[in-house]
């Protein structure tokens, strides 16, 4: 992998910056959330303590009203807006109150009749009546109780006065308990002979049918049945309220009996009851917001904080404050990408969805239940998803003197502020880290490019430091930078300088050596010369002669050793002249032909090179050819041929000396032209080869600005030495 | 009267060997190991021939200095450099200082003796002209080469050649048109040299003739073979 790519990969590590930021934001958000929960809990505790410290309030909470099963009780929604008693629910709908729904199967009724009870009616069992349903909504406005009953009844039967019953048709039964009544209850029958105003009747203690005018109501029909709107003063209701729909299944088959009691009425098989009235039992307590508790709790409410007081049977006792709902909703995903990133980055935990308030009067928050069971020290709270917002909810128990929970305070607060905070933080973080990542990335990239440029430059310089012929270049670009790359460059330059010095030393070694050896050789030779003039025995003379021969050979070797130096000197003093290369090749070839065995040398001068004029030193070139041909002749097997060829290439004159000799060993090819390098067989002792011949060839070729390569023929039939001499730019 | 030869050589063994060889030939030989004693002796009395090593003990180029001083004292005195240093630069420097020849130390004794004899012959010829009929003279066009006097004239002008160079010219001019290869030239000049030294000798010879005649082109290179003298 290239250095630059590696650094780009490394620069990706800066992406951990936004990640860390997101982690931080998450941590922060969690901490804030926790803090908010604690704050809410503190509020809840304050409310709880405030309530429990007041005996009056505590007493209210301990009243039996809050101990009954909630499902039997009716909840009176406190209403402030005026209602119109017209039998229509338009004004009710605007209040968005949730009523209680009662629905009956065919045979079920409030008065749980035994199946085998002797029944006067026959029709009811023969024709099953259509199911009926009632939705009951109750409200409390000032001292009045309002009731709206929406009844689904396929068959409306109006009151028939001729029966003498209190309610012979479909009617509504109200069961109240006035404050004055210690025991027992009062039933009212709300009936009507036709759509319009209803008449409310009851039986007094003497079983006389009496009209109750304080209860007013309107009966209206609708497609599925009928509806009733009632208004009655709370003083008439007392603490308890039961409502039941008596649906007349059939007209009574029996004649009018005046002694019908209400108790019997409920048991009559002609009617089905639907509601919260149990036969022979007082109606359950009605429940509603407790004004006093509400006032107490309202003190603690503030913007965006919702406080609720739940009774032990989960009725809403006090309700103060609202969660901001509408303010946040309008913006529908302002930045799609940003919020997507937000969710992605912050890994938004999914919270349980909080159902919208149903206004049934029940507090169904799990916390309000939990808190009345759980360890009092624990903070009971959690977070909910409410639309796009999150809502924190905490509950705290209100305990009596014995520490028993009697009610629960539920505090809710949306995390709007929190969200805004983290949102802003995230936006900023997003921007800053994007900026930082971009800057760091760009910086790293630039730095990487710069560094890799330097290293590439160094690598290039190192590659070029030693040219194709293995010679070390004089100039190596030394960096002045003080860092490691600069050091490396300098060290490399130093290394190359040392190497160059060493190779220079090696190159001159032979001539230096020959200088040094020449003096002792002179001693030997002159001594041997003198010895010849001394009287010696024949055998001694033989030895002297051998010594003479040996020293002569040594002398030759020394001369050969310094030949490279001499060529360099000759090159320094060489004078360039323009001469026909082809003619030189031919005459040289002719000269070699005389020396070499007949037919061994073939000279081929290509027609393209016939008029070749070269600017150079012919003496040196001849010397070069001498060495090449000599070399070829040494390697050429008997019967093989040496080819001396010249032809023109695009920018060069190609001079080739080829022979059929053994191939070059692969390892030596690069160094073949170096000083003192020989690939010859060491067993060939009769000739002296110091490996200077080809070195001289290279010196001469380089002097002419050309290059020389040695390679095996492609068909491996021999070896080719190829000299490329540049054509003069201004050739005539 | 025996001729006096001074050998200035810091290598005692070589000096003694040469002394023995030269004494055997009937010369009187003086040995000097350094420049100063040699110079002092030369001031007293000049030798007939001086053989000088270039490097003399501590003085790397003491031989050159000595040659300069000696040449100043005696312009006619034959001087031979005998040295281990055979670089072109040293040869040229030595010859420029007025040495009559420049030899490397590994030259064989017979070759050196031949050179000494030739030099003495030249000196003698300068001092007392010999009878013309006795002289071995080669005349090739503008070239006049007297082997006895060891001198060359081109177009009646003297060309100042060293002994080695003169022998080479002689070998070429003796059979004009014949190619003399390097070995033949070496043999003629009584030297063992490598190709490049021959080439530079030829180059120097040409230059010396050029100084006399800028149109000189009598020595032709036969590439791959050697040189020949053109008529």
The oligomerization state is heterodimer
The number of distinct helices of chain A, counting runs of at least 4 residues, comes to 17
Which percent range fits the helix content of chain B?
A: 40-55%
Helix-strand topology string of chain B: EHEHEHEHEHEEEEHEHHEE
What is the typical, i.e. mean, pLDDT of chain A? 78
Backbone shape of chain A? rod-shaped
Which descriptors apply to this entry?
heterodimer; A: 732 residues; alpha+beta; eight-stranded mixed β-sheet; six-stranded antiparallel β-sheet; 38% helix; 23% strand; B: alpha/beta; 8 helices; 43% helix
In short:
The complex is a heterodimer of chains A (732) and B (231). With 732 residues, chain A is of the alpha+beta class.
Task: Chart the SSEs and their pairings.
The complex is a heterodimer of chains A (732) and B (231).
Chain A: H1 3-11, H2 16-53, H3 55-62, E1 74-78, H4 90-95, E2 100-103, H5 123-126, E3 133-141, E4 144-152, E5 171-177, E6 186-191, E7 196-197, E8 199-203, E9 209-211, E10 216-222, E11 225-233, H6 234-237, E12 240-248, H7 262-267, E13 271-275, E14 286-288, H8 291-298, E15 305-311, E16 316-320, H9 336-346, H10 366-370, E17 380-386, E18 389-399, E19 405-414, H11 416-465, H12 484-531, H13 538-561, H14 563-573, E20 577-580, H15 581-595, E21 601-605, E22 613-616, H16 618-635, E23 642-648, E24 652-659, H17 693-703, E25 707-712, E26 719-726
Parallel strand pairs in A: 1-3, 1-14, 21-23
Antiparallel strand pairs in A: 2-3, 3-4, 4-11, 5-6, 5-12, 6-8, 7-10, 8-9, 10-11, 12-13, 15-16, 15-19, 17-18, 18-19, 20-22, 23-24, 24-26, 25-26
Chain B: E1 4-8, H1 12-24, E2 28-32, H2 35-44, E3 49-52, H3 62-73, E4 79-83, H4 88-96, E5 101-104, H5 109-127, E6 137-140, E7 143-146, E8 151-154, E9 157-159, H6 163-174, E10 179-181, H7 182-188, H8 195-212, E11 219-222, E12 226-229
